[in-house]
UniProtKB/TrEMBL annotation:
Ranges that cross the membrane: 20-41, 61-81, 88-106, 112-134, 146-171, 177-198, 219-244, 256-274, 281-301, 307-326, 338-360, 366-387
InterPro entries tied to this protein: MFS_4, MFS_trans_sf
Coiled coil: none
Protein name: Uncharacterized protein
C-alpha cells in the first residue's frame, strides 16, 4: 500500500525537464479556464441579446452568477488548501467547465444559464488558483518572463474566443459559438492534463508566522488595490464589446475582442521583463493608469479607431496587473496569497456588474466611465503601497 502511495506521489509531483513544459501547461490551463471558459461570454453577449432575447440587465445577472461562482472557487482554495495541490481537482474542474459551455445552447432558460455560469465560475477559479500556484512553485528559480508567457495563455484564449465569434457570427447562431468554445476548452484541457501541482509548504511554522507579520501592511494595500481592479476591469471585460457594438458596429466589437487577446498574449512577459529593472509596485501603478484611460476611451470618443486603441490598452494591461499583483503577493510570503488575492478580485467582480446595472438603460458609456474611475482608485491604493514599501515590495 505504501509503495502504491509512493508511486502516486511521485507521479503527482513529477517535475518537467524544461521550464517551458510548465509554461505550456499553465498557459493551456489558463487559456481554458479564463481566456475561453470565462471570457467567451463577453463577445457572445451581443449575439445572445440579438438572437436569444437576452436583455442588458439579464446579461449583467449572468455575469454576476459567473463571478459568484468564481468567488466560491477562490474561497475553497483558502479554506481547503489541499485542493490547490491536487491534480485530480484541476482535471475534474476543467472537464466540468467544458461541460457547462457545451450545455449553454441546450436551454433558453435564464435560471439554467445562471446555474451553468455559476458552476463555470467556480471551476475556473479552482483551475486558476491551482495553475498559478503551480507556476510560482515550479518557476520561482527561473527567468521572470517565463511566468509572463504562462499568463499569456489567457490572452491566447481570449483571442481564440474572439476569433471564433468573429467567424461564426455571420454564418451561424449564438449556440454554435458556445459549442466551439467547449471544443477549444477541451483541447486546452488535454494540453494541461499533466500539470504538476504545487508542493505542500515546508517552511517551519515560526518562519511562516514571521513572514506573515512582516508582510501584513504591504499585503493589505495590495489586497485593496487588486480588489478595486477586480471591480473596474470586470465592468470593461463584460461590456466593452457590447459598448463598441452599439457605437462602431458589430464587426468592430468582435474585432476589438480579438485585439484584446492579441495584446494580452505578449503583455505579461513584457511587464515581467520591465519588472527586472524597475520596481513592480511602480509598474503596477503605471499599468492601472493606462488601463483606466483605455476603459474610458470608448465612452468619450465614438468610432473604429478609439475602439481599437481601447482594446489594445485594456488587453495590454490587465494580465500584467494580475501577474504583478500575484507575484508581489507571493514575494511577501503571505499564507495562501494567491487564493486570498483571487478572492478579493472575485468580490470586486461580483460588485462590478451590480454597481453599473442601473446605468445600462441608457447604454454602456456611463458604466465604462465608472469602471475607469474605480481603476484609478486602485492605482491610488497601489501608489500608497509604492510610497511606503518601494524597496522591500520590489520582486526580482
Amino acid at each position: 500500500m505504501n509503495a502504491v502511495h509512493g508511486a502516486e506521489e511521485l507521479v503527482a509531483f513529477r517535475t518537467p525537464t524544461s521550464p517551458w513544459v510548465t509554461v505550456g501547461q499553465v498557459g493551456a490551463a489558463l487559456a481554458a479556464s479564463m481566456g475561453i471558459g470565462r471570457f467567451v461570454y463577453t463577445p457572445v453577449l451581443p449575439l445572445m441579446e440579438a438572437q436569444a432575447g437576452l436583455t442588458p440587465s439579464a446579461g449583467a445577472a449572468l455575469a454576476t452568477a459567473n463571478y459568484l461562482g468564481y468567488l466560491v472557487g477562490a474561497l475553497a482554495g483558502i479554506v481547503l488548501p489541499a485542493l490547490v495541490r491536487s491534480a485530480a481537482v484541476m482535471r475534474v474542474s476543467l472537464l466540468i467547465l467544458t461541460a457547462t459551455l457545451a450545455l449553454m445552447p441546450v436551454t433558453s432558460n435564464e435560471t439554467a444559464w445562471a446555474v451553468l455560469r455559476c458552476i463555470a465560475g467556480a471551476t475556473s477559479a479552482m483551475v486558476f488558483v491551482i495553475a498559478v500556484s503551480a507556476m510560482h512553485s515550479t518557476l520561482s528559480g527561473h527567468a521572470a518572463h517565463l511566468s509572463g508567457w504562462a499568463f499569456g495563455g489567457i490572452g491566447a484564449g481570449i483571442a481564440l474566443s474572439g476569433f471564433v465569434v468573429l467567424v461564426l457570427r455571420s454564418m451561424s447562431t449564438w449556440g454554435s459559438v458556445w459549442w466551439a468554445a467547449a471544443l477549444l476548452t477541451l483541447i486546452c484541457t488535454l494540453a494541461a492534463w499533466t500539470l504538476t501541482p504545487e508542493r505542500a509548504p515546508t517552511a517551519p511554522a515560526a518562519e511562516r508566522r514571521r513572514s506573515r507579520t512582516q508582510g501584513h501592511r504591504r499585503f493589505s494595500a495590495l489586497f485593496i488595490s487588486y480588489s478595486l481592479e477586480g471591480v473596474g476591469y470586470i465592468i470593461a471585460g463584460t461590456f466593452l464589446v457590447a459598448a463598441i457594438d452599439h457605437t462602431a458596429g458589430s464587426f468592430a466589437g468582435s474585432g476589438a475582442w480579438v485585439i484584446v487577446g492579441l495584446a494580452a498574449l505578449p503583455s505579461a512577459p513584457l511587464w515581467a521583463l520591465l519588472g527586472r529593472r524597475w520596481s513592480r509596485p511602480i509598474l503596477l501603478v503605471i499599468a492601472l493608469v493606462v488601463q483606466a484611460a483605455g476603459i474610458a476611451l470608448p465612452a468619450v470618443a465614438d468610432g473604429m479607431w478609439p475602439a481599437l486603441v481601447s482594446a489594445f490598452l485594456f488587453g495590454g494591461t490587465f494580465l500584467g496587473i494580475s501577474q504583478m499583483s500575484l507575484r508581489i503577493g507571493a514575494h511577501l510570503q503571505f499564507p495562501r496569497a494567491v487564493a486570498i488575492l483571487t478572492t478579493g478580485y472575485s468580490l470586486g467582480q461580483i460588485a462590478g456588474p451590480l454597481i453599473v446595472t442601473p446605468l445600462l438603460s441608457d447604454g454602456y458609456h456611463l458604466a465604462l466611465l465608472v469602471a475607469s474611475g474605480i481603476v484609478l482608485a486602485a492605482a491610488l491604493a497601489a501608489a500608497l503601497l509604492t510610497a511606503r514599501f518601494r524597496q522591500r515590495a520590489t520582486v526580482e
